[in-house]
Amino acid sequence: MVVLMKWSSLLLVSLGLAAPVSAAPPSTPKPSTPPMNASPGIEAETRAWHTERVSRLTSDDGWLTLVGLHWLKEGANRFGSAPDNDVVFPAAFPAHAGTFTRKGATVSLALEKGTSLALEGKPFTGGALRSDADGKPDTLALGSVRFFVIRRGDRLGVRVKDSEAPTRKAFHGIPTYAPSAAWRVEGRFEPATTEKKISVPNVLGEVEEMVSPGTVVFTVGGQEYRLSPVQEPGEDQLFFIFGDLTNRDETYGAGRFLYAAMPKEGKVVLDFNRAYNPPCAFTSFATCPLPPSQNRLKVRVEAGEKRYGDH
Prior knowledge:
- By secondary structure, the chain is mainly beta.
- It has three helices and 17 strands.
- The strands form four sheets. A six-stranded antiparallel β-sheet has the order 1-11-10-9-6-7, with no helix packed on it. A five-stranded mixed β-sheet has the order 3-2-4-5-8, with no helix packed on it.
């Protein structure tokens, strides 16, 4: 927990945001139009959506099961539970389980005699491993522990999950704002006339150029705002990575996520009641994207999920 809090504070400093403090929050502008109460329909829909979101988060394969992220060096990387390994795994693993070998953009795994792993429910004896850059990664398992290779820019790493993770067992729910009809906003979609890419930073200090299909222009409290979504490969939704003034005191300091349906007749509905915390709000082993500069709203979006615990 201490490591996670230090990591969160450094992240906020890198974004130019204040880390959370116990003093009274600073006075910041609020929408001139006070939020109206949600209709029974909006409230029920929001509660149902959030219940499903928490179910995914707390599932056997959810973000709360993350227990490790190990970046691989070129060449041999010994792994196992013993502290003298290059990559130290949970105690459930043999002291010296095998070796990951990285050659450029590829990773293979050789197992020590006596180590038994499963790949898709079948025995795995060693060989090349497909990373998440190639679609669904090869996921290996031993007991409650699962791991796979991820690629982030030029980095290749091993992400480790454990369904018995303390973060999963200690989960106590996510506080939220009360659902409000005022925060289900219809915006005007301005499509990009040519292929548009926006610079999206992440917690690793890298910047990725991501395709953005356009911009959504919407109004809150009589003031106009703009958000640029990205469209992930294979997805038929708009994905918004945004920050707002509540990040200073009530919501996660590094911003939140929001999905919206594709434009219909030039309109996009932004339901901020469904704004949610990125995985980095729960674990330091995630590699979350951060709000691009144009998506840092100068308004308090008092809707959706609030800050989880001390993060």
